[in-house]
Write a structure and sequence with these properties.
An eight-stranded antiparallel β-barrel has the order 1-2-3-4-5-6-7-8. A hairpin with a 2-residue loop joins strand 2 and strand 3. By secondary structure, the protein is mostly beta strands. The protein is built from three helices and eight strands. It has a single domain, classed as Porin (Beta Barrel).
Length: about 200
């Protein structure tokens, strides 16, 4: 049943994109920031952030509205002999709705709202686990979050680049699960660049 719902959701999104005016996609880098960052030391916190995620994004445009998704993820080698886990993977993904104040100008300021999921899974070393239940236990954190923010993009014909700043309004456990909430920071700063067509 869950596979059927996923397939239906994918086809719904694909069908909706057929009437889009333009498409955007590219790469992004996010720095997670603590909530006590001040304007004075904002850039220092971004550069020194210990939690940096590479990622990808896409967006389809309908007039001034944009609908898209952003995916961030990174592997960390942990080599935990006690649990037999060698790697961990952290991810932050969101479905984003944006309102762009301009359509064809060089400067493209926007506001956005997003609903997303974040988590961490640990991978055992090759041959250390064979049963499916062991892999299921290696999901360490899982949470749903809601965020709002804004940013500005700079357009150069079919290329664009910009900055986003997001505030996490909510970060809660996934209903019906027993996993701990992923320890998201309150603020996320994103630098992105990509193509438009």
């Amino acid at each position: 049943m869950s596979k059927l719902i996923l397939i239906a959701a994918i086809f719904t999104i694909l069908a909706g994109t057929l009437g889009a005016e333009s498409y955007r996609m590219g790469v992004a880098v996010a720095a997670e920031l603590a909530g006590d960052v001040t304007c004075k030391d904002f850039f220092k916190h971004v550069i020194d952030s210990p939690v940096v995620f590479p990622g990808l994004y896409w967006e389809v445009m309908f007039d001034h509205l944009g609908l898209g998704m952003t995916y961030f993820g990174k592997f960390n080698r942990i080599g935990d002999e006690e649990t037999g886990c060698e790697w961990q993977f952290d991810w932050i993904g969101s479905l984003d709705l944006r309102y762009h104040f301009t359509k064809e100008d060089f400067l493209d300021p926007f506001v956005e709202f997003g609903l997303g999921c974040a988590g961490r899974v640990e991978f055992p070393a090759a041959g250390s686990h064979s049963d499916r239940e062991a892999y299921r236990r290696n999901l360490q954190f899982l949470s749903l979050f809601f965020q709002a923010g804004g940013g500005i993009a700079f357009r150069f014909d079919s290329l664009h680049a910009g900055l986003r700043l997001l505030y996490r309004i909510m970060n809660e456990p996934v209903p019906g699960t027993v996993y701990e909430v992923y320890p998201l920071y309150r603020l996320q700063s994103v630098v992105f660049a990509g193509v438009s067509f």
